[in-house]
Amino acid sequence: MSSSAIYPIGTPGIPWGPAEVAAWRGRQTRRRSYADEVQGRIEALRAHFDVGEYGRLEYAPDSYPLYAVRSRDWNTALPVMLVTGGVHGYETSGVHGALQFLERDAVRYAGRINLLCVPCVSPWGYERIHRWNPDALDPNRNFREHSPARESAALWGLLAPLRDTARTHIDLHETTDSDESEFRPALAARDGKPFEPGTIPDGFYLCADSAQPEPAFQQAVIAAVAKVTHIAPADPDGTIIGSPVVAHGVIEYDCRKLGLCAGITDARYRTTTEVYPDSPRATPAQCNDAQAAAICAAIDYALASGGRAV
């Protein structure tokens, strides 16, 4: 099946140029408010955390402050735990799960960890419920120094100083039905490649970093989330989204090679969550709860295991 059969922009077999990117951008409309739904909740966290801007995205006529939420009394003797959400703006529970954790669960770690959380890496994408930024770039394939994706470059700059000291990094994502109906077809069209249909897993799963998989850590997170929502089974060929299942609910990616957020630091315990919000067996509240449970399980495991990043 060619990309032209399912996507309205571009010429089959030819990657997009500036005109196609502009045409795609012109089709995107604001569908929800970062200021009302995210920024306001972050501002309310100032009562218990240090909240600051680590950058600002200027996408005329819009301007988006980028927020980092930190433990108030940062102590270099304590382990550093990183949480990121909303790298893909359309993945709602990544953002709201991170906020829920900060509002409800983070207090119990006060004085035990240095917490740094970025609840919404991609506010333009959040408002338009889209995977890409306005330049038709996927932030989660562009985490590297001098990144062309401004969202990725800003987060890289924030986290790079913690590369050698972070113990844990959990990056919150979703896999949605729109991946198959919109985002993968758009990717094929953008790159001038044929669209190859795939499958959407029904349930929660994790993407471990193949460079530092820590299987016991991954299974501890899976076990905690299984109390909240169901874990995705493997497809008949033993894969999830085309990658071999290495343990219950776990696949692996080479995060740094692919430019994924979870590969920014050398944190020993790192993973990417994937919630399935379109499942008839899950509610939005369950999805948020699953993300928060994954964060808590990741931090609890790292605290129990001790040691510094390797």
Short overview:
With 310 residues, the chain is of the alpha/beta class. The chain has nine helices and ten strands.
Give a structural overview.
With 310 residues, the protein is of the alpha/beta class. The protein has one domain: Aminopeptidase, CATH 3.40.630.10. The protein has nine helices and ten strands. The strands form two sheets. It has an eight-stranded mixed β-sheet with strand order 1-2-4-3-5-10-6-9, sandwiched between helices. The protein has a two-stranded antiparallel ribbon with strand order 7-8. Strand 1 and strand 2 (62-70) form a beta hairpin. Helix 3 packs across helix 9 (284-305). The longest helix is centred in the C-terminal third of the chain and has 22 residues, at 284-305. The protein is globular, with a radius of gyration of 19 Å. The N and C termini lie far apart (45 Å).
Distance between the termini: 45 Å
Which band does the percent of strand residues land in? 15-25%
Please give the number of β-strands. 10
Strand sequence of the main sheet, in spatial order? 1-2-4-3-5-10-6-9
> How many strands, what sense, and barrel or not for the largest sheet?
8 strands, mixed
CATH class placement: Alpha Beta
For this structure, the CATH topology is Aminopeptidase
Radius of gyration: 19 Å
What would CATH call the architecture? 3-Layer(aba) Sandwich
- Uncertain segments: none
Globally, the shape reads globular
Determine the CATH superfamily: Zn peptidases
Counting helices, strands and paired strands, the structural category is: alpha/beta
Instruction: Report the order of strands and helices.
Output: HHEEEHEHHEHEHEEEHEH
Secondary structure: helix percent: 25-40%
